[in-house]
Amino acid sequence: MTAPALLPFDTRAAFQQRLGDVLARARTTLVMFDPDFALFRLGAPDVDAALRRFLHDGGRLRLALHDATHLEREARFLRLLRDYAHAIECRRTPRGLRDLTDSFCVADDLHIVRRFHSDHLRGDAVFDAPQQTELSRLRFDGIWAESLPGLQASVTGL
Predict the structure, then answer these.
(1) CATH of the structural domain 7-153, one choice from 3.30.70.940, 3.20.20.10, 3.30.590.10, 3.30.870.10
(2) What CA–CA distance (Å, rounded) separates 23 from 20?
(3) Strand 111-115's sheet: what is its strand order?
(4) Measuring CA to CA, which residue among 95, 97, 125, 124 is closest to residue 25?
(5) Where do the domains of the chain lie?
(6) Which of 11, 66, 107, 113, by CA, is between 20 and 30 Å from 119?
(7) Which residues face 112 on adjacent strands?
(8) Are strands 103-107 and 111-115 parallel, antiparallel or unpaired?
(9) pLDDT tens per residue, range 112-124
(10) What are 37-80's pLDDT values in tens digits?
(11) Kind plus residue range of the DSSP H or E element containing 55
(12) 136: Cβ contacts below 8 Å, ≥ 6 apart
């Protein structure tokens, strides 16, 4: 049996392609961590469509971030958050975690796209590889446990 292939990338287009691949494969859970999600394009029509399909089919999305300013300006993402408030949770990290700079998206504990540092586009993706997602998933669980509710669907939550 061969090990799943790591698919490296170092451009914005390649990152967004790999993110799209992970979103397309997601069935039940998506967990994402990024300082601000600016490069994830969560308000772009193609990403919105993929997330709506995922959520409509019963998926659950959890986002952890340092700063929600970018997402608060994404009208399409805010509509998604309002439409699927029962299936999306966003949390903001406390000040003590603000030095975390990696970025990742894990789908169903099987597929992952990750950037090694949020200021750079270098990273990799791997599919159908639970052993490759385990460390990031455990990391996400730790970040999630220390974070506080953040971005909300209502205007008062913004």
Answers:
(1) 3.30.870.10
(2) 5
(3) 7-9, 123-126, 111-115, 103-107, 29-33, 60-65, 88-92, 148-149
(4) 125
(5) 7-153
(6) 107
(7) 106, 126
(8) antiparallel
(9) 999 999 889 999 9
(10) 999 999 999 999 999 999 999 999 999 999 999 999 999 999 99
(11) helix 45-56
(12) 104, 106, 112, 114
Q: Residues in the chain, how many? A: 158
3-state secondary structure of 64: strand
Which amino acid is located at 111 in the chain? H
Q: Cα separations (Å) of 112 from 3, 30, 66, 115?
A: 15, 10, 20, 10
Of 103 and 2, the one with more pLDDT: 103
CA distance readout (Å), 124 to 15, 111, 128: 8, 11, 14
**Token duo for residue 70:** 């970018």
